[in-house]
């Protein structure tokens, strides 16, 4: 069989590669937890409801809680190196406090549409690090 349209094969292969590529643990951490600059939505409840949906945290089931960190990604990443202090295992505490928005699901249903209650604070954070990069948000330090 001779392909008459090699461009079609190339497009097909590129599409397969894009579908097969999964986000790294660090990319997932950033998608789920870093919002910088902070998305401008004046109402904190609407902020949580929109961000949780936009970041794919309400697909099929409402994620019970999630915290967004409002700092430059590089500053958050630095918690795993010079910007943090080793706590235990692979957990590090930030040396500085970050502006945070914690979103907690409210209501009886765990199925979308999801409704979240916000809590704004400024606190030090604890993250799990792998190869010098944050991969899991543990909570406040």
**Widest sheet: strand order?**
2-3-6-7
Percentage of helical residues? 25-40%
Spans of at least 5 consecutive residues with low confidence = 1-19
Secondary-structure class: alpha+beta
> What is the level-2 CATH architecture name?
Roll
Q: For this structure, what is the CATH class?
A: Alpha Beta
What's the total count of β strands?
Answer: 7
Q: Give Rg in angstroms.
A: 19 Å
Shape: globular
Average pLDDT: 89
Percentage of β-strand residues: 25-35%
CATH topology: P-30 Protein
Protein name: Ribonuclease CL2
Keywords: Disulfide bond, Endonuclease, Hydrolase, Nuclease, Secreted, Signal
InterPro entries: RNaseA, RNaseA-like_dom_sf, RNaseA_AS, RNaseA_domain
Domain Ribonuclease A-domain: 22-141
Would you kindly provide a written description of the structure presented here, covering whatever features stand out?
With 141 residues, the protein is α+β, with helices and mostly antiparallel strands. The strands form two sheets. A four-stranded antiparallel beta sheet has the order 2-3-6-7. Strands 1-4-5 form a three-stranded antiparallel beta sheet, covered by helices on one side. Residues 1-19 have low confidence and may be disordered. It has one domain (24-140): Ribonuclease A-like domain (P-30 Protein, Roll), CATH 3.10.130.10. It has helices spanning 6-20, 25-33, 44-54, 73-77; strands at 65-69, 84-88, 91-94, 98-105, 116-123, 125-130, 133-140. Helices cover 28% and strands 31% of the residues. It contains four helices and seven strands; from the N terminus they run αααβαββββββ. Residues 22-141 form the Ribonuclease A-domain domain. One of its GO terms (molecular function) is RNA nuclease activity. InterPro entries: RNaseA (IPR001427), RNaseA-like_dom_sf (IPR036816), RNaseA_AS (IPR023411), RNaseA_domain (IPR023412). It is found in: Secreted. Its main location: secreted.
